[in-house]
Every structure is written in C-alpha cells, then in structure tokens.
Here is the input.
Amino acid sequence: MFTLTFTSLALAAGTIISTALAQNFPNQSAPYNLKLISDDPTLGGKFLWACHSGAAIEQLCVSDTAATSAGTFYLNTSDYGSIEGYKTGALVWNLPYGGEGSNLIASSALRYGWNPATNVVPCYFLPGDTGSDITNVGLDSENKLFVPTYVDDVITPNGSQLFYKWHVCNSQFGGYRYKALSWVTVGEPLNGGCRPVNVSAVLASV
Ligand SMILES: *[C@@H]1O[C@H](CO)[C@@H](O)[C@H](O)[C@H]1NC(C)=O
Ligand SMILES: *[C@@H]1O[C@H](CO)[C@@H](O)[C@H](O)[C@H]1NC(C)=O
Ligand SMILES: *[C@@H]1O[C@H](CO)[C@@H](O)[C@H](O)[C@H]1NC(C)=O
Ligand SMILES: *[C@@H]1O[C@H](CO)[C@@H](O)[C@H](O)[C@H]1NC(C)=O
Here is the structure.
C-alpha cells in the first residue's frame, strides 16, 4: 500500500519535473551566422559572436568575420508560435562546456536583460529556453531577425506586428563593457552609444 502510494507520488513528481523542463522550442533551424545591416560603416557587414559576460552568460558582440562555433546560431521554434505566417521562437547558441576535448554543449536561448532605468535592453544567452525573459524572435522573408508582438501600445488595442529595433550599443552588462546587440523599446535610445542595425541570418557553411 505504502509502496504503491510512494511510487505514484514519485511518478507524479517526475511528471511535474519533466513538464517543467520540457522545451518550449524543440524544433531547431539550420545553423546561421548573424550579419549586421547598418548605415554605420563600422557596423554594416560585420558579424555577431557570443562573447563571455558571466558564468554561462554571453552577449552578442561585433566581429569582422563570422566565427565558427562562437558565431553559429539557430532559431528554435514550435508549432505554437507564429505571426503573419512566420514561425517564432528563441535564438539559440550552443555553449561548449566540459573543457578541452569535450563535446558537451548547453543549448542557450537569448533573453532580455531588462533594466527599468533605460529603454535600451541588453540581450544575453543563458542555458535552457524557459523563463519570461526569453527574447521571442522570428526570421522574415528576407531572413531579418524580428521581434513579434501582439500589442503595440502606440495603437492599442490593435497592433500585432513585426518590430526591428535592434541596436549595437556601447553598453555595460554584468560588469562587462562591450559593443553589444541591444533592443530599444521605444523612442531614441537613452544610451548615446547606440546605433540602429538589422540582423540578417545567413546560412552558415558547416
Ligand atoms: C533547440 O532545439 C534542439 C533540437 O531539438 C534542442 O536540442 C535544444 O535543447 C533546443 N534549445 C533550446 C534552448 O530550447
Ligand atoms: C516540430 O516540427 C514538426 C515538423 O514541422 C512538427 O510536426 C512538430 O509538431 C513540431 N513540434 C512542435 C513541438 O511544435
Ligand atoms: C489593425 O491594424 C491593421 C494593420 O495595421 C489594420 O488593417 C486594421 O484596420 C486595424 N484595426 C483596427 C480596429 O484599428
Ligand atoms: C530594419 O528593417 C526594417 C524592416 O525591413 C526597416 O523598417 C528598418 O528601417 C531597418 N533598420 C535598419 C537600421 O536598417
């Protein structure tokens, strides 16, 4: 009797845990490099790479060339997220761990690093794809990275649309100062070191 009850409890707990750990965006795209489009000649044509910003945390920094593993990203989606016919989900980077010779990776989803003091939101990768800070994104017909939203406060209650408010900013996040990809919520960025960019996903040659 007791054993049975205990087993059912353990099973129930197991179900809850595996549900909690279930991936929100299990369908992974082909590998991409992320190329910047910008009128600023110091940024246009450059690439983004995953740069260390804390334990298992990376931001997207600017580089002249597409790095191999640090510059390879995926769009993970599910059938449950789409807008105007485009699948939406998480931008993913594979964080290597386990040291030299190990092929272990921690699949990490891009998130917003909200700070209530500014309209400039740094973006960073952290392992896993759960949490309310996940940066929900998609790729449009030109393979440009967009953020979908179903409420635009400027035209509430309407406003389902694709937004492109990416900027590269001289920013500070987690104690690290980089030229890194950020999102500007509305208006001109408070940080004067921000330049508008678009992020184009280019199929990576692997
Ligand atoms: C992305 O999809 C791949 C393939 O299913 C999966 O292994 C990985 O854990 C997913 N990553 C995230 C962050 O959801
Ligand atoms: C992943 O993609 C396949 C093929 O399009 C689809 O059948 C499946 O339902 C998707 N999985 C989820 C969880 O959305
Ligand atoms: C909502 O926005 C769409 C696209 O911008 C427009 O076609 C539609 O008329 C708007 N609806 C309302 C109720 O304002
Ligand atoms: C980014 O792309 C969008 C959609 O095509 C466009 O409206 C916007 O002006 C572009 N921004 C930059 C900085 O190129």
